[in-house]
UniProtKB/TrEMBL annotation:
Record-linked PANTHER family: NAD-DEPENDENT PROTEIN DEACETYLASE SIRTUIN-7, NAD-DEPENDENT PROTEIN DEACYLASE SIRTUIN-5, MITOCHONDRIAL-RELATED
Organism: Callorhinchus milii (Ghost shark)
Any one annotated GO CC term: chromatin
Keyword NAD: yes
E.C. code: 2.3.1.286
Skewed-composition ranges (Basic and acidic residues): 7-24
Designated name of the protein: protein acetyllysine N-acetyltransferase
Cofactor: Zn(2+)
Annotated segments matching region Disordered: 1-24
Length: 199
């Protein structure tokens, strides 16, 4: 008999917990709807709900600020010509004075070859999150971009000693950068290696 009452007590506790979670979810949805309204259109009832859910409101506002900060990070910013000239001069000086220059490259340098990045405005993840279809690209037809060619030239002129790339598209090698000057962190989709063979 005692086992039945413990079981019933556990079931009752589970039901209370489930009900509390459902109420919390409904309250969160209501708060979210109210926060989406312009402040001048919020009713007295809306304000009372917000006043009674201060923690939920603060958590939602914090999440909103984080999302907006993430969006701002994705925005492409174009410098004014004068500002760009200053930055180029600084870069030239840094490259010329470097004792051992390593370039780190990522998906952004291959976008001009019609290979999408992940987080950019037309990136794979950005498109998927917005419900847009991701276009298929034949990577075998991609050509090295101007950036790839400039990096290869900097290496030939002994201004760059090594390139570390997150890309696996093989465009650095196709730009004539020697394999010994390249570390491909995620491998190369055109090179197969036997995992059982000695390197």
């Amino acid at each position: 008999m005692a086992g039945v009452s413990q079981r019933e007590a556990r079931k009752a506790a589970d039901r209370r917990e489930k009900r509390a979670l459902e109420e919390q979810s409904a309250r969160s949805k209501l708060v979210s709807r109210i926060l989406k309204k312009p402040e001048e259109l919020r009713t007295k009832e809306d304000l009372a709900v917000l006043a009674g859910c201060v923690d939920t409101v603060q958590a939602m506002e914090k999440r909103k600020q984080k999302r907006e900060a993430q969006k701002r990070k994705l925005e492409e910013v174009l410098d004014e010509p004068d500002e760009l000239k200053k930055k180029i001069k600084l870069l030239v000086t840094a490259v010329q004075e470097a004792r051992y220059l390593v370039i780190y490259s990522g998906a952004g340098i291959s976008t001009a070859a019609s290979i999408p990045d992940y987080r950019g405005p037309n990136g794979v993840w950005t498109s998927l999150q917005s419900g847009r279809a991701v276009s298929a690209t034949d990577l075998s037809e991609a050509e090295p971009t101007l950036t790839h060619m400039c990096i290869a030239q900097l290496y030939k002129e002994k201004l760059v000693q090594h390139v570390v790339s997150q890309n696996c598209d093989g465009l650095h090698l196709r730009s004539s950068l020697p394999r010994k000057a390249l570390s491909e962190l995620h491998g190369n989709m055109y090179i197969e290696v036997c995992t059982y063979c000695a390197p």
